[in-house]
Specification:
Layout: E1 5-7, H1 20-26, H2 40-51, E2 62-68, H3 73-80, E3 91-98, H4 103-121, E4 123-129, H5 136-141, E5 148-149, E6 152-158, H6 164-173, E7 183-185, H7 199-206, H8 227-234, E8 245-251, E9 268-275, H9 285-290, H10 295-313, E10 318-322, E11 334-342
Parallel strand pairs: 7-8
Antiparallel strand pairs: 1-10, 2-3, 3-5, 3-6, 4-6, 8-9, 9-11, 10-11
Amino acid sequence: MTSDTSTPRPAARPPFPAPASALIQRRYSCRTYLERPISAEDKGRLHEFMASRTRGPLGSQARFGLIAAAPDDRQALRRLGTYGFIKGATGFIVGAVGRGPKDLEDYGYLLEEVILAATGIGLGTCWLGGTFTRSTFVRRFGGVKRGETMPAVASTGYIGDDGTERIREREEGSRRFPPAELFFDGEWGVPLAAAGGGTGGSAAAGDEAGAGDEAGAGRYADVGPFAAALEAVRMAPSATNKQPWRIVRMASPEGGRSRRGPSTAARHDWHFHMVRTKGYGKGSAVFTVLRIADLQRVDLGIAMCHFELVARESGLDGSWVVADPGLELPGPGIEYTATWREAG
């Protein structure tokens, strides 16, 4: 087990214009926009929010800005090769993060918060991952400092599609992994919802779409108020929908005891791990050639963001720590990321 490194987060939530759980449900990958500039009022609201998101939960420093779209943006995005056609976007949310051990996770966390804020304002958004360090995005942002990187941006503007993109996004959501493949209890491979022997296990295995029950609570019979936070993780966006996050709940060592196996402790650690997709991301040929950032680490940051926002909205307190539990893992390509430690 590695040493414990804690980075406390403020208990107060940022001023979202609507409940985070509602914004998570509303957000989708918008690729068609009205060719109408973002109003000065909406720009001001978004700039104010971005100015408050400068430190990630694992300690990295970041900064964000809103830039106007330019004629050469389409070519810059096409060179990335994997993100489809963005039509009519009048702006881009851009940012930079200081390089460090958890920089990409922090960036994913913070940019997802900005995207949810934009959703609440009434703007459409779409994540666009890559390496933009030498792009016109950086020049219009004012440059990237030595020791910083820009691993992703997001297109934004007023939504211009007729609803078909939203329908397509819901269909994509139906291909999410079921909870039993994502969330484990005590050790790797023991489904969290099934650990207590309740109805949550069978429901999880049979319901992939996540529709029909409030926040997916029917599929998380033994996790109490964390049901909504887990469902928010399950529905988080990820690069090409690879869904690389896995969570193992264990009894917290600060709760007086620590043991393997299904946990009935009053306080828990929620250990986030990344399962790398073979031939995708770090070390793969396409990502090396295109110089795309390690997007699956960014995806873990997005999942962390959803978990914390909805947990706090549900009245659950805690903080992020780096405390690898040293679990026995089923094979290579699985990496520990961070832990949400419930507060006493």
